[in-house]
Inverse folding.
């Protein structure tokens, strides 16, 4: 009897110690070096213990949106994919800017398409407080891809139906075709008519809008043709067809990118909710519902949350 | 013998557990005492111009993580353990004081038009927007709400407050935050005494001196010789002829007033601005080398980290 008690005590002691040791071992284990290649691999084969972090326009709270400083910030934070908006200048250069005009984000005024590259480079970006204190310029897509090369992936917005070809030329030139994810709202037929076989050479991530009526056909056509490995899924409520179709995307073993920016894109499970009501109610809910990539305006906080949940291994 | 070993094991495991429990409660206790005393330390430090501690002022609140001039921005600054938050005060159509930087509400809210044409009730129906122009859940706060939140937690600097000095003072008095608030203005002593002299011994007033100004030294001396020398002077170091007044900073500190300089934009500080500090935080050493002990910043976390690493902030 005494022996048994003794044994139990030893076991108890060992168990209590083991927890500690495991904790230490986890922090000591050398992290696998993340590159754009490992990120792409994750995107193609989503695993249960990793959620990709997609940072909206860079980390615009820290650096001006769509700036080189924002790209660098994403790399430093350990973000996987930075979302970037590109537009054409008057003389045909692709530059990173969200709005049709330079009014909101720079110290200039006017349409992007009325500026030459030389002219637009003279402007300075404003920070998110609307203050022209920044020394940053509007970067070209080429500058962004050179900075991002081998490090993170770039999710290109505002290209579809307009500038896929121009963007592809830059990617080829900088050797980053495998680092850019194009996105769009158009059906496969529309995209194919515009770009033909180019659709097979790029990484294309279709957007699933809750407003679309024939969402199932829309997906099927893509599956039969370019067979995308990731979809951006937008749903304003749990009643939306796009919400109900999530299991199908999961069955296909494709990545489901959720957009936690605004209420109508994720049935209210936003970054803002994460801060005000707790991350489990927002980001946790999206993950529980199958998201394996999340676009955020709070990359630092999201990464910390995911690390705490063991979802960044 | 076996009994003895078992007993020993028990004791060991008991102690190892107890130690960690004790550790935790110790942390909690220090947290609590820190909260209670931190505002007293901040107030004492504000009054002591000779202290080595640098006062960090967050511009419009910590506007990166919440809309500028929102209650959330003030709360975030408190959570970051920033010393002081700078907010902008304007008057509504029906005479209420609210937090708003621009004279219109176009840039920062979902509404449009001049603030002074809106009543408080209608302002409370609209939302503040974030840096991308998207509506948040936050609303325009009143000065009363801001001071109630800040009370006992963080110092406050009221910008755009001089014209409405008396109205601001009323709210400060009502909320019992006289020790925590600085009102500021660009006028010389004689004018300030004439207009609001009755308040000068009741609330902190900080003269702003915008350079180049040939009378800068004279203005400073007037204030230093007055009945209630100011807690600090704010200097806007524009132009080339700033060296002369900067040589006085050490003496002004010795005479009892702190020196406030903005690190916001390069033309306020001879090019030692926050954006350069992002690339190299040692840029902030310039403030220490020049006897500047209050810094208004757009990068409160970066500045705090730098100051702590150099022993200039607790």
């Amino acid at each position: 009897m005494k022996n048994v008690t003794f044994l139990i005590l030893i076991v108890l002691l060992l168990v209590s110690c083991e927890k500690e040791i495991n904790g230490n071992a986890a922090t000591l284990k050398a992290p696998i070096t993340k590159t754009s290649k490992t990120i792409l691999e994750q995107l193609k084969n989503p695993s249960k213990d990793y959620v990709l972090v997609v940072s909206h326009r860079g980390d615009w709270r820290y650096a001006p949106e769509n700036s080189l400083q924002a790209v660098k910030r994403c790399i430093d934070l350990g973000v996987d994919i930075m979302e970037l908006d590109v537009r054409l200048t008057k003389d045909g250069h692709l530059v990173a800017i969200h709005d049709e005009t330079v009014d909101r984000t720079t110290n200039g005024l006017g349409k992007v398409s009325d500026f030459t590259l030389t002219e637009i480079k003279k402007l300075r970006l404003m920070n998110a407080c609307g203050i022209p204190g920044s020394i940053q310029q509007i970067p070209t897509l080429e500058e962004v891809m050179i900075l991002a090369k081998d490090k993170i992936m770039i999710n290109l917005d505002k290209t579809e139906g307009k500038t896929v070809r121009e963007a592809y030329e830059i990617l080829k030139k900088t050797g980053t075709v495998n680092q850019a994810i194009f996105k769009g709202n158009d059906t496969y037929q529309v995209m194919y008519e515009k770009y033909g076989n180019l659709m097979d050479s790029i990484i294309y991530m279709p957007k699933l809008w809750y407003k679309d009526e024939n969402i199932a056909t829309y997906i099927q056509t893509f599956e039969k043709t370019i067979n995308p490995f990731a979809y951006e899924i937008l749903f304003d409520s749990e009643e939306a067809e796009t919400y109900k179709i999530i299991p199908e995307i999961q069955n296909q073993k494709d990545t489901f990118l959720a957009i936690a920016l605004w209420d109508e894109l994720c049935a209210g499970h936003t970054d803002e909710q994460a801060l005000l009501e707790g991350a489990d109610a927002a980001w946790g809910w999206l993950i529980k519902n199958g998201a394996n990539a999340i676009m955020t305006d709070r990359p630092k906080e999201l990464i910390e949350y995911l690390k705490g949940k063991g979802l960044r291994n | 013998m076996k009994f003895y070993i078992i007993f020993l094991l028990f004791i060991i495991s008991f102690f190892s557990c107890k130690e960690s429990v004790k550790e935790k409660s110790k942390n909690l206790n220090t947290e609590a005492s820190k909260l209670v005393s931190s505002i007293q330390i901040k107030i004492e430090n504000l009054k002591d111009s000779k202290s080595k501690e640098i006062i960090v002022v967050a511009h419009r609140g910590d506007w990166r993580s919440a809309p500028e001039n929102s209650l959330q921005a003030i709360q975030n600054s408190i959570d970051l353990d920033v010393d002081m938050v700078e907010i902008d005060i304007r008057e509504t159509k029906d005479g209420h004081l609210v937090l708003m930087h621009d004279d219109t509400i176009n840039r920062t809210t979902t509404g449009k038009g001049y603030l002074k044409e809106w009543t408080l009730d209608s302002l409370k129906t609209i939302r503040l927007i974030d840096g991308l122009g998207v509506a948040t859940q936050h609303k325009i706060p009143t000065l009363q709400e801001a001071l109630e939140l800040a009370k006992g937690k963080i110092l406050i600097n009221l910008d755009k407050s001089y014209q409405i000095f008396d109205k601001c003072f009323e709210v400060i008095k009502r909320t019992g935050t006289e020790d925590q608030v600085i009102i500021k203005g660009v006028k010389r002593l004689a004018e300030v005494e004439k207009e609001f002299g009755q308040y000068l011994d009741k609330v902190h007033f900080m003269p702003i001196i915008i350079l180049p100004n040939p009378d800068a030294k004279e203005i400073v001396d007037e204030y230093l010789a007055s009945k209630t020398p100011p807690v600090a002077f704010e200097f806007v170091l524009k132009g080339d002829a700033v060296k002369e007044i900067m040589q006085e900073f050490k003496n002004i500190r010795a005479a009892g007033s702190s020196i406030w300089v903005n690190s916001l934009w390069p033309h306020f500080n001879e090019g030692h601005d926050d954006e350069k500090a992002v690339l190299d935080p040692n840029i902030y050493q310039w403030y220490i080398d020049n006897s500047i002990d209050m810094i208004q910043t757009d990068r409160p976390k970066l500045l705090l980290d730098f100051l702590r690493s150099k022993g200039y902030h607790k």
Remarks:
- Strands of chain B lie at 55-59, 84-91, 97-99, 155-159, 181-185, 204-210, 232-236, 258-262, 294-297.
- The two ends of chain B are 53 Å apart (CA to CA).
- Residues 11-30 of chain B have pLDDT under 50 and may be disordered.
- DSSP finds twelve helices and nine strands in chain B.
